[in-house]
């Protein structure tokens, strides 16, 4: 068992949702997540890593909702084509509708239009879906669903803008999260992820290391960038960042535990 201080470590950060990646996390530990985590999103990492949906639905309880991320261009979840997996989704499970990461798309799927599929998927659902905005911001906004934003250096400005423009729907912000102030541990956990973001990739020296072994200019760039594209630091530092996102208009902050689930679970 983790100590009670480990529970407090996650809870004090103010995070209300956790993203589980079935290829690297044991999704069955959803039931062990600390109190205060009211929503779990289950990321899509290919059909081979899809959890048993009935078993996943059994993890839903009165205090915690579970949403499954479903790419609307992928066979099985395509509302304008093969929607067999979506049709069999237990009603207890909510949805996060996304365009889909290229790593999980066939060439055929990658050519499918996103906007009409997002609209059709929203229309087919009774509940309130979350809609991923990455790369399809206008189409996502048009659905009227909860906007599911990926944290970036411009997120707080974007949230301010949405609220100032009169958007009164829910907004969720997804962020890789590392609850430690150990810089090497931070870079090992989210350095490579951050290095893939366009502005960071362009700023890094060619062939630079992107983990704790980074030195010089590369380490300087990465150390700054991980604080733009991830939630990192001790629990108080992360809590303050989460509070800033909420003040700007975020209703939910979804942490992807980049060092594993232990800091977010009771056991």
Would you summarize the structure shown here?
The chain has 267 residues and is of the alpha/beta class. Helix content is 36%, strand content 16%.
Characterise the protein shown here.
With 267 residues, the protein is an alpha/beta fold. It has helices at 4-11, 53-57, 84-87, 107-110, 115-124, 137-143, 155-164, 183-195, 198-203, 216-229, 235-248; strands at residues 17-20, 39-42, 65-71, 94-98, 130-132, 146-150, 171-178, 231-232, 252-257. The chain has two domains: 4-181 and 233-264, Alpha-Beta Barrel (TIM Barrel), CATH 3.20.20; 182-231, no CATH class. It contains eleven helices and nine strands. The chain has an eight-stranded parallel β-barrel with strand order 1-2-3-4-5-6-7-9, surrounded by four helices. Helix 5 packs parallel to helix 6 (137-143).
Count of beta strands: 9
Q: What do the pLDDT scores average to? A: 92
Overall helicity: 25-40%
Within the largest sheet, what's the order of strands?
A: 1-2-3-4-5-6-7-9
First and last CA, distance: 5 Å
For this structure, the CATH topology of the largest domain is TIM Barrel
CATH superfamily of the largest domain: Aldolase class I
Large-scale geometry: globular
What is the alpha-carbon Rg in Å?
Answer: 18 Å
How many strands, what sense, and barrel or not for the largest sheet? 8 strands, parallel, barrel
In sequence order, what are the helices and strands, one letter per element? Answer: HEEHEHEHHEHEHEHHHEHE
Overall number of structural domains: 2
The low-confidence parts are 1-10
SS field, number of helical segments: 11
CATH class of the largest domain reads Alpha Beta
| Proportion in β-strands | 15-25%
Organism: Halobacterium salinarum (Halobacterium halobium)
Protein name: Luciferase
Pfam family, one: DUF7388
GO molecular function, one term: oxidoreductase activity, acting on paired donors, with incorporation or reduction of molecular oxygen
């Amino acid at each position: 068992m983790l100590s009670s201080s480990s529970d407090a470590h996650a809870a004090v950060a103010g995070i209300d949702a956790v993203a589980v990646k079935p290829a690297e996390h044991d999704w069955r530990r959803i039931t062990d997540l600390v109190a205060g985590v009211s929503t779990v999103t289950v990321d899509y990492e290919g059909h081979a890593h899809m959890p048993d949906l009935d078993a996943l639905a059994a993890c839903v309880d009165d205090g915690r909702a579970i949403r499954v991320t479903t790419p609307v261009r992928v066979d099985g979840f395509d509302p304008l084509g093969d929607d067999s997996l979506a049709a069999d989704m237990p009603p207890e499970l909510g949805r996060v509708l996304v365009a889909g990461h290229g790593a999980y798309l066939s060439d055929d799927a990658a050519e499918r239009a996103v906007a009409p599929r997002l609209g059709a998927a929203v229309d087919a659902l009774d509940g309130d879906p979350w809609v991923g905005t990455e790369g399809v911001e206008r189409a996502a906004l048009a659905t009227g669903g909860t906007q599911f934003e990926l944290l970036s250096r411009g997120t707080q400005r974007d949230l301010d803008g949405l609220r100032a423009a009169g958007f009164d729907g829910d907004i969720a912000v997804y962020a890789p999260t590392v609850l430690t102030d150990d810089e090497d541990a931070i870079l090992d956990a989210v350095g490579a992820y951050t290095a893939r973001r366009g502005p960071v990739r362009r700023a890094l020296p060619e062939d630079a290391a992107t983990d704790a072994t980074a030195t010089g200019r590369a380490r300087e760039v990465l150390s700054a960038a991980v604080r733009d594209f991830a939630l990192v630091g001790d629990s108080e530092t992360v809590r303050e960042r989460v509070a800033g996102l909420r003040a700007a208009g975020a209703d939910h902050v979804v942490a992807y535990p980049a060092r594993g689930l232990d800091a977010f679970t009771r056991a």
